[in-house]
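If it is no trouble, might I ask you for a protein's amino acid sequence along with its backbone structure tokens?
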Amino acid sequence: MKREEASDSSSKESKKSDVSSSQKSQPKNIVGGPRVIEPVFEQREPLDDRIKSQIILSLATFTDETPPTRICETLKGMLDSKFGKGWCVFAGAHFAGSCTFEEKYFAQISFGTYSITAFRIFIPGS
């Protein structure tokens, strides 16, 4: 929707000069900085909603420039502290694996160029 406002020509001129001076102060070769990424859960099994919410909150602190090791360490620490020991987290662009996990404690997430797999294993006595 287009919106027009009535104003006198002197205020239009001052707006033009403000815009042109602010454009001049920015270098033209700036490359965009780190981008925030929206996680996409690719679940085949149900995941506890509380866990999913906490993963989303943790991933919101990362960008496309965050190393996968930092993502793994942060997610594992958060999951172990909030939902009990036994969490395993893998993140990266190229990996494969096979694992056994507890029901409702497995997440497969696309996060930019990374795939993140998080799951909890059974620990006797816990």
Notes: The mean pLDDT is 80. The longest helix spans residues 9-24. The beta strands are 40-41, 87-92, 106-111, 114-120.
